[in-house]
Amino acid sequence: MTRKIQRAPGSLSYFPQATPEVCPCVGSYATDADLHYTAYEWPHSLSEIVNALLEAGLRIEFLHEFPYAAYQCLPFMVQGADGWWRLTNTRNRCR
């Protein structure tokens, strides 16, 4: 069973906030059990993560990002004919 996060599109913040995102969830990537629980998540931007690694002494030679995922991370993602999951309407999302 894939974990399903039940939250509205556009309700997430990309940058860190003072309080966690509270997410009612169903399922898990680790088991087929019918789990229902609340997750408390703190978002971390890519720059925050990479800078923490650099400050810890990690040498990064390259970084790849992809516009798709192997599973439906968010409820408003759509699965393409190729089997990959993508966000919808992302063209102007960062403006």
Structure description:
The chain has 95 residues and is of the alpha+beta class. The chain is 11% helix and 19% strand. The strands form two sheets. A three-stranded antiparallel beta sheet has the order 1-2-3, with no helix packed on it. A two-stranded antiparallel ribbon has the order 4-5. β4 and β5 form a beta hairpin. It is extended, with a radius of gyration of 16 Å. It starts with a strand and ends in a 9-residue tail after the last strand.
Write the layout of secondary structure elements.
Layout: E1 4-5, E2 21-26, E3 36-41, H1 46-55, E4 78-79, E5 85-86
Antiparallel strand pairs: 1-2, 2-3, 4-5
How would the global form be characterised? extended
N-C termini distance:
35 Å
What class do helices, strands and sheet pairing give?
alpha+beta
Mean pLDDT: 81
Based on CA atoms alone, the radius of gyration comes out at 16 Å
Give the helices and strands as they follow along the chain.
EEEHEE
Total number of β-strand segments?
5
Strand residues, percent: 15-25%
Q: What is the number of helical segments per DSSP (H or I, 4+ residues)?
A: 1
Largest sheet properties: 3 strands, antiparallel
Q: Would you identify the regions where 5 or more consecutive residues have pLDDT less than 50?
A: none
